UniProtKB/TrEMBL annotation:
Main localisation: cytoplasm
Taxonomic classification: Bacteria, Pseudomonadati, Bacteroidota, Chitinophagia, Chitinophagales
Protein name stated in the entry: Phenylalanine--tRNA ligase alpha subunit
Annotated source species: Niastella populi
GO BP term, example: phenylalanyl-tRNA aminoacylation
Single Gene Ontology MF annotation: phenylalanine-tRNA ligase activity
Organism superkingdom: Bacteria
Co-factor note (free text): Binds 2 magnesium ions per tetramer.
Stored InterPro entries: aa-tRNA-synth_II (IPR006195), aa-tRNA-synth_II/BPL/LPL (IPR045864), Phe-tRNA-synth_IIc_asu (IPR004529), Phe-tRNA_ligase_II_N (IPR004188), Phe_tRNA_ligase_alpha1_bac (IPR022911), Phenylalanyl-tRNA_Synthase (IPR002319), tRNA-bd_arm (IPR010978)
Aminoacyl-transfer RNA synthetases class-II family profile domain segment(s): 118-338
Binding partners and assembly: Tetramer of two alpha and two beta subunits.
Location in or out of the cell: Cytoplasm
């Protein structure tokens, strides 16, 4: 019995001094101490040679030793798993990783990005400006001086603390800022959110998105404007699209026009969407008013330019078959999830 106890003490020492490294060493340890022909099993077999009055004492020591051997094994194993030094077979590094849940692009952005990509190909770059603007950049520089009746065309949100500040009513403030500080020629498109004090309904909202364009150089003509916009609608709606220009009035352009395209639903036949006319109005445009050029220190005798502006929500409603403009700003994921990156 004494000899057995000495042996157990020596094994205890060995286990305690055993460094816990290497998957192979762990397996060798398991076979040596915990295997079917291992040390623990053999010691239990020795029980039959222990005198009856010592069996209980020996049994307790042996159980204690067994627990030590098993605890060492478990700790060692966990340590190896934690440090990633388990055998290569345990982790197949060639398996694909877990897929991350992907979001979708907002339909307004899908539409805007498509418009931007078309104008990019014509050499227009994107410019952005502030949504909180001063009176000069939103109105006065655009030939809308104080008390000009055209200011009544748009109901404006003014900032209470400073009546000179407002939420921009169009993205034209961005073009004014570009003309004030950029070198000519300028060829930009300006996408962004704009604000108007309107009652919210299925058809209109107090904020919406616009994309405007501006090209200023020597000898820019109305023919350039027509060709640019014709290219745009052909790329956007297909080669069969027809266009027409109707004279219009905007304080910042002269002459001014509105551009219609043949209805994309009935192909000009006449339907409820085009109010039986066969035409859909998609944008306003014109030659930049000489006064606007002067306001930005550009010589109207030397330079000319064209500008255009379109709302995004209405054509996006049409494109995606949506019947309520409020869906665009409610962030209902059941709505948003339906849009993929396809335009
Ligand atoms: C500068 C000079 C001229 C931008 C223009 C329009 C015509 C136009 C409307 C379309 C639908 C606004 O969102 S909407 O209600 N816009 O019809 N916008 S010309 O003219 C400019 C802009 C900047 C310096």
């Amino acid at each position: 019995m004494d000899e057995l106890l000495q042996q157990i003490a020596a094994y205890r020492q060995e286990i305690e001094n055993q460094p816990a490294n290497g998957a192979d060493s762990l397996e060798a340890y398991r076979i040596k101490f915990l295997g079917t022909k291992g040390i623990v099993k053999n010691l239990f077999t020795e029980m039959r040679n222990v005198p009856a009055d010592k069996k209980k004492e020996f049994g307790l020591i042996l159980n204690d030793f067994k627990q030590l051997a098993e605890a060492k094994y478990e700790n060692w194993k966990q340590q190896l798993e934690g440090t990633g030094t388990t055998t290569v077979a345990a982790i197949d590094v060639t398996l694909p990783g877990d897929a991350l849940p992907l979001g979708t692009r907002h339909p307004i952005n899908l539409f805007l990005n498509h418009v931007i990509s078309i104008f990019n190909r014509l050499g227009f770059s994107v410019a952005e400006g502030p949504e909180i603007e001063d009176d000069w950049h939103n109105f006065t520089a655009l030939n809308l001086p104080e008390h000009h009746p055209a200011r009544d065309m748009q109901d404006t949100f003014y900032i209470q603390q400073n009546p000179d500040w407002l939420l921009r009513t169009h993205t034209s403030n961005t073009q004014i800022r570009a003309m004030e500080k950029e070198q000519l020629p300028i060829r930009i498109i300006c996408p962004g959110r704009v604000y108007r004090n309107e009652t919210i309904s299925a058809r209109s909202h107090c904020f919406f998105h616009q994309i405007e364009g501006l090209y200023i150089d020597e000898n820019v003509s109305f023919a350039d404007l027509k060709q640019t916009l014709y290219f745009f609608v052909q790329e956007m709606y297909g080669k069969d699209v027809k266009v027409r220009f109707r004279p219009s009035y905007f304080p910042f352009t002269e002459p001014s026009a509105e551009m219609d395209i043949s209805c994309q639903l009935c192909h000009g036949e006449g339907c409820a969407v085009c109010k039986r006319t066969g035409w859909l109005e998609i944008l306003g445009c014109g030659m930049v008013h000489p006064k606007v050029l002067e306001n930005c220190n550009i010589d109207p005798e030397k330079y000319s330019g064209f500008a255009f502006g379109m709302g995004i929500e209405r054509p996006a409603l049409l494109k995606y078959g949506i019947n309520d403009i409020r869906l665009f700003s409610e962030n209902d994921v059941r709505f948003l999830r339906q849009f993929t990156s396809a335009t």
